[in-house]
Specification:
Strand order of the largest sheet: 4-3-5-6
Number of helices: 11
Largest sheet: 4 strands, mixed
Order of helices and strands: HEHEHHHEHHHEHEHHE
Number of domains: 2
Number of strands: 6
Distance between the termini: 37 Å
Shape: globular
Radius of gyration: 18 Å
Oligomer: single chain
């Protein structure tokens, strides 16, 4: 995707309002952050600034100074900024947990990142929220029963479930999607009232729940379920054909579901 093109993949379409007046530059992103009252993990007012070669890493700089490093003309970084705008509570919680884990590791003299930070980074980059009123459909997704969920029960899935891509790297990749593109998913059970909400209100409700989860939970990369993004209804016209889900490059064979497969309902 070119830096001057606001075209979005269907799974990224909910970010469209932030691009309504074209691709925002850093001053415009900053203005939108101020309008939203965004803060980073330490409660510091958020500012989108150009990336620099300073000693602090991304998470530390954001938490301590409120400066979110953003490369002009870079869609990966722009999507990161758009996710901050759309998911301010969850992004601040991710930033806070990263910084606390980093400072704890330094205090203990440990150089490794650890499972928690790896999991937080994976979700930040590639996370997908599967919000639905049917935990059984989620269990079948975890078990790789792709045809059952996406073909046999497709109408039920469309009525009961929303797939919301959170990870900014996934949004960047969706600009030129490829076979096997996969997200890291968690499930959040919702009721019928949530499913009737307009997109902005629905995201805001999940944002608050995600923030609580990230602040309190302990995670490892095993907590996220692999989800082939191009299998999601609407992600590509090709998946309207049942045999699309026979492609094992994307849809691995069924497996036994790991107990406690998603932290979203803890």
């Amino acid at each position: 995707m070119s830096a001057d093109s606001p075209a979005l993949h269907p799974l990224s379409a909910y970010l469209g309002p932030w691009l309504a007046n074209g691709t925002p530059n850093l001053p415009r992103l900053d203005a939108m952050a101020r309008e939203r009252g965004l803060v980073t993990g330490n409660g510091v007012s958020l500012r989108f600034v150009e990336a620099s070669g300073g000693p602090e890493g991304y998470e530390e700089r954001a938490c301590l100074s409120g400066e979110v490093a953003t490369r002009p003309g870079n869609w990966h970084d722009l999507f990161n900024a758009l996710i901050w705008l759309a998911w301010p509570l969850a992004k601040a919680a991710l930033n806070r947990r990263h910084f606390v884990a980093l400072t704890d590791a330094r205090r203990q003299g440990r150089a490794e990142r650890g499972a928690l930070r790896d999991a937080l980074t994976q979700f930040d980059e590639c996370g997908v929220v599967v919000a639905g009123s049917s935990p059984d459909l989620w269990r079948n997704l975890c078990a790789h029963r792709w045809r059952e969920v996406f073909v046999d029960r497709r109408a039920e899935l469309l009525r009961s479930t929303r797939f919301i891509v959170f990870g900014h790297a996934s949004h960047d990749a969706l600009a030129a999607p490829f076979v096997g593109l996969c997200g890291k998913a968690l499930f959040m059970e919702v009721d019928a009232a949530w499913l009737e909400l307009p997109t902005t209100a629905a995201v805001a409700a999940i944002d608050a729940r995600l923030a609580t989860l990230f602040d309190a939970g302990e995670f490892s990369p095993c907590d996220w379920q692999p989800l082939p993004l191009l299998g999601i209804p609407g992600a590509t016209a090709d998946n309207e054909q049942p045999d699309y889900y026979d492609d094992r490059r994307q849809f691995r064979p069924p497996r036994t579901m790991r107990p406690g497969s998603s932290p979203g309902n803890r």
